[in-house]
Predict the structure.
Amino acid sequence: MKLLLPAVTPEDIKALRQATPDAEFYAGIELPEWYERFGPYEDLNRMSAFRGTANTSGMAAILRLKAAAGDAGLYVTLNAASYSPDQRAFLQDVLAAFADAKIDGVILGDPLMASDVRAHGLKAVASTMVGVYNADLARFCQDAGFTRLILPRDLSLREIEAVMNAVPDVEYECFLMRNGCRYSDSNCLARHSDQFGAICTFLDRARTAYGGAACRSFPAHDSMTFNHMAFSRVFHKEACGVCAVWDMLRLGVTAGKVVGRADGLPSVLRDALLLQRNILLARQCASRAEYLSRLELPPSYDSMCFQGCNCYYPEVRYSTGEDF
Amino acid sequence: MGRVEMKTQQAYSLCDAMELALSPSPLLPPEAALLYVGSYFCDRYFCTTPESVWDAAFALAQGFPEGAVLVVPTPSQAQLERVKEVVLRLAEKHAGLLREIVLNDYAMLRWAQEALPSLPRWCGRAMSKDFRDPRYPLPSQRIKLLDTAENSNLMNLQVLGVEADPVNPLSLPQDHHLLVAVHVPLAYVTMGRLCEFGSIGKPLDQKFRPGGSCSRQCTDNWLIYENRGFSFVKCGRAVYTSNKHIQAELPDGQLRIIHSALANCLQTAGGEEAKR
């Protein structure tokens, strides 16, 4: 399993490549001419609202990223949730430029664009924005021309295994480190950042009123309130899949995705090194139990690792009895 | 397929709130021609709906001139085969009433095209992934999937129409051939499969799991959010915002308008402000 790491600048890639020689990279792009034509709220990719913090600007920058990546894979995101026909037409020149830059693939949010990417000789990767939640969707994506599928972060290991077994002839990428999400990327259609913040944090900070059972009895209100506090104030404030590395190797996952294009190099580098050490360790372990007893926990262990609240795959430590 | 020539058609949706909407007695808009049943957002809700609730929903559909439309959510891997079984069972049991089926992902659309070829298919609201955020109002909102489907064959998937959740005035292409259905007065903005309500009563270390079991707590719990003058409501797995304001500006004669029973239920029930 390789690591797939986020990068904004060539310097990011150089530093990450030196530390994790086996890693692949992904980057977002922003194109001023896109916004001029389609307006400020039409995203080019999922992180467009973060502008220069999460994206490199202009095609020339992609060439510099590819030069820094060398023979390591470089993928570029065009993973807005959907594109209109005129936006797809606009993107043909962008894809041609990607092909000229010899990037390795394009991470797509709209499955209908896979054929466009293939037509330019590029590898089509299904973003988490596609929402590959089951084997039929994986097969649909394969038929559409995708050769790598990024599975959503809200799949259990058991579901991942079932999808991979049912559709074995594509590469799979799974979430491994950094940001969690309480909603489903593929159906989250509000602004992801900007003046009011992402919709999830905006809702977390909202004044709430409960309806239904919570209005009728103290115990129901108590239970609802605790649940909502856990959901909005505790759950997935960070996210980590370190404890699942052994299982991912066993399943044959091609790449472990580290998110955080807007987070900056130091934290990504720290997590990449941690994961690299744990991948090496997991390869030496004969069982999940052995791996869990020997793994290196993240530096923010004291604030992050409790009750599965920041786990991508909580079932590894907190099984419900029907997880494996 | 010829150009669409239709009068604006009204429909009523019980989806994702069938128990709430059916009890004690539903407030039905008299002009509605079709009744939508099922779920847009939750495979678990769909699969665990008691037979008595399905029967009551389809019985209600008998009073609608055009009958019922079955809405099918995107299945998780764990529920994939079960969702298909429920669809086939309902399609057979209520064949006389069922007029159309709404699918919410490409794979289920492909499956339904093969498994139930005679039942007209719609791209459901979860497939129309246009930006919609009431915090950033825009002069107009397109349905990109409609634009695409009008210009291509959607990978050989034949559909009757496309659903949407506009929060801005709707802009439709001239002479569109496919039907368009619009959800009012609640437009969905986001949804999550790590279910908040389904975790009520569970210990912390078992909460918010993908595919976690539930006791259908969503049938009797919801949340209303207010922040900086904007309101949202979370029911089931989805978060909605009001799009009442766009109703008056909807283009005449080209639409099916799907009225949400959920909105009626919430209006009637009200809510208690949480202590903060």
Chain B has seven helices and 13 strands.
